[in-house]
């Protein structure tokens, strides 16, 4: 039964870390750096989950995994707040005047015959 719980938790944590990678880290870091950071966090978190009951981990790996689990959760909360703020800003932006938009777009239109 614990193995099923571990698999479900691992899937959930991996999807949370993917959300953090996609919507938070890629906004601030280069792609390779963000991928390495989130991969290390995910690996240590999954090791920590396995170390709870399935395997016996050294003390420093247990502590590192617990810190990565907390870091993963904090980054997830920050990413959700970031995306919520981004959404609110987009919803409350000023309406666009269509006449001004058309006036500015006219010189850039390509006329095909």
Helix and strand content put the structural class at: mainly alpha
Low-confidence stretches: none
Number of domains: 1
Mean pLDDT: 86
Amino- and carboxy-terminal Cα gap = 69 Å
Number of strands: 0
Number of helices: 4
Radius of gyration over C-alpha positions, nearest whole angstrom: 22 Å
**N-to-C SSE series?**
HHHH
Q: What is the percent of helical residues?
A: over 70%
The main pleated sheet reads as:
none
Overall geometric form: elongated
Protein topology:
Blueprint: H1 2-28, H2 31-53, H3 59-91, H4 98-105
Record keyword descriptors for this entry.
4 helices, mainly alpha, 113 residues
Describe this structure in words.
This protein has one domain (2-108). It has four helices and no strands. It has helices at 2-28, 31-53, 59-91, 98-105. The longest helix is centred in the middle third of the chain and has 33 residues, at 59-91. The mean pLDDT is 86.
Summarize this structure briefly.
The protein is mainly alpha-helical. The protein is built from four helices and no strands. It has one domain (2-108).
């Amino acid at each position: 039964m614990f193995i099923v719980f571990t698999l479900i938790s691992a899937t959930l944590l991996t999807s949370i870390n993917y959300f953090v990678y996609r919507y938070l880290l890629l906004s601030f870091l280069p792609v390779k750096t963000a991928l390495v950071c989130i991969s290390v966090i995910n690996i240590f978190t999954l090791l920590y989950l396995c170390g709870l009951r399935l395997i016996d981990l050294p003390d420093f790996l247990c502590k590192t995994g617990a810190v990565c689990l907390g870091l993963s959760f904090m980054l997830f909360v920050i990413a959700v707040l970031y995306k919520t703020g981004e959404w609110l800003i987009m919803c409350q932006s000023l309406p666009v005047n269509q006449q001004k938009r058309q006036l500015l777009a006219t010189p850039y239109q390509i006329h095909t015959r």
